[in-house]
Specification:
Helices cover about 5% and strands about 40% of the residues. It is mostly beta strands. It has a five-stranded antiparallel sheet with strand order 1-2-3-4-5. The protein is extended.
């Protein structure tokens, strides 16, 4: 679905990476996004965003683990006192 929001150009960065150059189809704060994807596992290893002023923000991902086991206790949620819980079909 990237093609719905961005003009996409595929490039290669040596033998190990693909680079997706994404240019938004609609004007906004982002001028361009570059995704660096490993060829062997198709994992995003770097994201670079360039805003309308030419500022660049680069994020690099290392040691990413996929399909790891996460205990269900990590997802416990307690409603804070005084908060109202809304259900998808209403309060």
């Amino acid at each position: 679905k990237l093609g719905e929001l961005f003009d996409v150009q595929l490039q290669e960065d040596g033998k190990a990476y693909y680079v997706l150059d994404l240019t938004p189809k609609q004007e906004g704060n982002i001028q361009r996004i570059e995704l660096k994807v490993s060829k062997n596992q198709y994992m995003v290893e770097q994201v670079k965003t360039i805003d309308g002023f030419g500022n660049e923000v680069e994020l690099r991902f290392h040691g990413v683990k996929t399909n790891g086991k996460v205990p269900s206790s990590s997802f416990s949620f307690e409603v804070p006192s005084g908060a109202q819980v809304l259900q998808a079909d209403g309060p």
